[in-house]
């Protein structure tokens, strides 16, 4: 893991030093409503939860990872005051523990982790907090100094550093938007460590960086995003969700980037291209490389029947 820390530090330094103009630094972005203060690199302070003030800026890392099915320690209405004093590292699943360690080693004081920065649970306070914070997810990843992807972990317990396995995160619905909106992204994958920013892509097994055009969709013009929307939806529909009700919220940030007063967005489609967006075909869920056809689920709660978002599984146009 020391090699991983050194490699990430090297790639980050190269981006900050040599990619002026294409890769904004994002050192003074508006902070999310809550962040975890990881403490100084010497470990003299336990991590703690911080509620930021309106307009407060800073540098923070965002974590993109799979929750999985096993329950783990999260922020609750009942423990918020306790976590503002100290977050017990021994209670955290390995992926979150590793991400906090990485932030501390790189000297980045704050990290945003959804399970520690959004109140979890089914009580009134938690539901209201999710309604508010879920609408800001796109801003969180756009404003991050860089994003850490736990690409090789199928749940929160598997960590950033582990034996090589297939990359489950690339199948997760929320991770699709998180990766596209991130300015810089370091991915702890199943086969190797990799890096993407606005100017280049680097891999652990390759000695040289590969220069390429925009890796983040936020750099595209809104018109281009709308023009490519059905292609985006096709790729996005291959992803899976812990909660099927997240299907539209998990792509809402991208939709906001493409929306204009002249071309509004409704249930997964843009008004000015509504006809092509109606011409979708349901392919079903992907199970073991094959399409498994399933019925429309609870469409009245999620989306009207004309929308691709009313069905589970993949679609094409």
From TrEMBL:
Residues 60-167 form the Heterokaryon incompatibility domain. It holds the Pfam family HET. This is Heterokaryon incompatibility domain-containing protein. It comes from Hypocrea virens (strain Gv29-8 / FGSC 10586).
């Amino acid at each position: 893991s020391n090699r991983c820390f050194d490699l990430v530090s090297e790639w980050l330094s190269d981006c900050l030093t040599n990619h002026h103009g294409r890769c904004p630094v994002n050192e003074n972005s508006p902070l999310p409503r809550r962040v975890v203060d990881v403490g100084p690199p010497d470990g003299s302070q336990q991590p703690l939860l911080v509620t930021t003030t309106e307009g407060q800026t800073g540098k923070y890392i965002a974590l993109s990872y799979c929750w999985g099915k096993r329950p783990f320690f999260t922020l609750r209405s009942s423990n918020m005051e306790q976590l503002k004093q100290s977050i017990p590292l021994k209670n955290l699943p390995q992926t979150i523990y590793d991400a906090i360690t990485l932030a501390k080693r790189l000297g980045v004081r704050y990290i945003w982790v959804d399970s520690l920065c959004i109140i979890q649970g089914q009580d009134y306070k938690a539901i209201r907090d999710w309604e508010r914070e879920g609408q800001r997810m796109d801003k969180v990843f756009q404003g991050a100094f860089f994003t850490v992807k736990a690409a090789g972990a199928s749940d929160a317990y598997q960590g950033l550093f582990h034996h090589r396995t297939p990359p489950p995160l690339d199948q997760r619905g929320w991770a699709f938007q998180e990766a596209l909106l991130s300015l810089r992204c370091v991915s702890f994958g199943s086969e190797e460590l990799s890096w993407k920013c606005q100017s280049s892509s680097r891999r652990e097994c390759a000695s040289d960086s590969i220069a390429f055009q925009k890796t983040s969709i936020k750099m595209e013009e809104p018109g281009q995003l709308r023009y490519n929307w059905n292609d985006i939806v096709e790729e996005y529909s291959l992803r899976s969700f812990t909660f099927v009700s997240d299907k539209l919220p998990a792509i809402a940030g991208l939709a906001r980037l493409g929306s204009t007063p002249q071309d509004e967005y409704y249930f997964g489609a843009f008004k000015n291209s509504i006809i092509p967006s109606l011409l979708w075909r349901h392919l079903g869920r992907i199970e073991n490389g094959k399409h498994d056809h399933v019925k429309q689920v609870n469409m009245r709660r999620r989306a009207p029947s004309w929308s691709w978002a009313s069905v589970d599984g993949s679609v094409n146009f």
